[in-house]
Amino acid sequence: MLTVQDTITKVEEGSIITPAGFHAAGMHTGVKRKRNDLGMIYCEKPANAAAVYTLNVIQAAPLKVTKESIAEAGKIQALIVNSGNANACTGKQGEQDAYQMRSETASQFNLPEHYVAVASTGIIGLEMPMDKIIPGIQTLQPEAALESAEAFNESILTTDVFTKSTCHQAKINGKTVTMAGSAKGSGMIEPNMGTMFGFVTTDATIEPPMLDLGLKEVTNQTFNCITVDGDTSTNDMVVVMASEMVDHDTLTPEHEDWEVFVELLKQTCEDLAKMIARDGEGATKLIEVAVQGAADQQQAGQVAKSVVGSSLVKTAVYGADANWGRVIVAVGYSGAEINPDTIDMFIGPVQLLKNSQPASYSEEEASAYLKEDTVKITIDLNVGEGAGKAWGCDLTYDYVRINASYRS
Q1: Looking at per-residue confidence, does 393 or 174 come out higher?
Q2: Domain residues for 141?
Q3: Are residues 118 and 201 in the same domain?
Q4: Boundary (domain end) residue, out of 278, 310, 332
Q5: What share of the chain in percent tops pLDDT 90?
Q6: Which of 106, 249, 254, 288 qualifies as a FRET site for 301, CA 20 to 30 Å off?
Q7: Catalytic residue among 166, 195, 232, 268, which?
Q8: Average pLDDT, the chain
């Protein structure tokens, strides 16, 4: 019997512009030394929109502008984003600059200002180099071409090693709906949210309140389940734009394919979240912690994130050291309901604990598994039916090197 997950198809050559109606652009303006630093997603018509934002109480000026734009009518048609400068903690001048980015984009593409969202990422506390950004906005020419999508993907990066993009399709009312995403994130990652962007496009037909409902549900199962270093940034957001260019019945929780749409959004966001975790600054491995047997789903996620966020667990994975004591400690201080006598634990296929007691296992086998690119730690608390996952990365010498010279 097919599950909802089985109804989703990954589009290997898809990108942020694969859903009908979307165009993208990216260019180098000189804000950064080399890589593209200004990008845009543009929709042929106003797209229904929803977003989630960092929970850091100090929020950068572009977040204020984007919140205002989406709140106006629940729609945006263009998203302008720069990297290299966060426009955070920049006072009134920073707000003026964010609004100017919005107004210039609106003017250039003949849009109402509230149809433009703004995002910035990079160094905190520096005034925006508007003498570079404004001419860039005037030059951008979004296109529905793969190379334009790739240029956009690069334009949002900071310390990222690689671009992050994914695309999936599913049937809604028998019609093919496409969803794609682009993301950035490498360090200062501890959502809710981390120093990360997630931009998702879809041609599904769905109203803003329902899009918001689906996004919030999915965010808690994906982007909010990753951590690199425990720091929550000031600029982070996930924005979803729906062009409604596939003519199917409007999606609501009562729609027969609502769960298919939510799963489509979940798989898109989970792909991006895992790419962010894998690209943690200096990282060599992706860590996935899967918890089962918890009191409920929320507590399962709580334990998983506690383990994947532990610096001692992360360094043990980097060193290929099957030090399960570090894992059990992180389980214990997670704050979740546990029975200290019933915990089972595996690293990959190797069982390390049975009922909280050391199991007989091969150190060599466990160490060999820990040298792989992806490391899965499975924990069964045996107290309930809750299950959840979290993703992170190992902690390496390079993390310190990168962050010790971030502004140099």
Answers
A1: 174
A2: 7-278
A3: yes
A4: 278
A5: 73
A6: 254
A7: 195
A8: 90
Query: In this predicted structure, which of 69-73, 273-277, 318-322, 357-361 has the lowest mean pLDDT?
Result: 273-277
Q: How many CB atoms lie within 10 A of CB 391?
A: 26
15-72 pLDDT tens trace: 999 999 999 999 999 999 889 999 999 999 999 999 998 777 678 899 999 999 999 9
Residue 2 lies in a domain: no
Quick: pLDDT tens for 181-208.
999 975 444 444 335 789 999 999 999 9
Residues 269 and 338 in one domain: no
Average pLDDT over residues 319-328: 92
Q: Are residues 112 and 229 in the same domain?
A: yes
378 labelled catalytic: no
For residue 254, give the amino acid letter. Answer: E
Q: For residue 406, what pLDDT is reported? A: 52
Mean pLDDT within 210-233: 79
Strand, coil or helix: 51: strand
- Residue 268 and residue 225 share a domain: yes
> Which H or E element spans position 40?
strand 38-53
Residue 1 maps to a domain: no
Torsional sign, CA 107, 110, 112, 115: negative
Shared domain check, 331 and 265: no
Is there a single domain that holds both residue 249 and residue 265? yes
| 270 burial via Cβ count (<10 Å: 0-12, 13-18, 19+) | buried
Q: Where does a domain end: 261, 278, 295?
A: 278
Q: Are 333 and 366 in contact (CB under 8 A)?
A: no
Alpha carbon of 389 to those of 47, 69, 186, 297: distances in Å? 32, 33, 19, 9
Instruction: With a cut of 60, say whether residue 228 has pLDDT above it.
Output: no
- Domain co-membership, 53 together with 201: yes
Q: How far is CA 380 from CA 111, 326, 337, 359, in A?
A: 53, 16, 13, 14
CB 170 within 8 A of CB 261: yes
Q: How many domains does the chain have?
A: 2
- Partner residues linked to 202 by β-bridges: 179, 242
Q: Which residue has the tokens 């200290």?
A: 340
With residue 357 as reference, give the H or E element that holds it. Answer: strand 357-358
Q: What is the pLDDT of residue 23?
A: 98
- Asked whether residue 85 falls in the same domain as residue 210, the answer is yes
Residues of 48-86 as b/e, b for ≥16 C-beta within 10 angstroms?
Answer: bbbbbbbebeebbbbbbbbeebbeeebbbbbbbbbbbbb
Spell out the residues 6+ positions from residue 12 whose beta carbon is closer than 8 angstroms to its own.
none
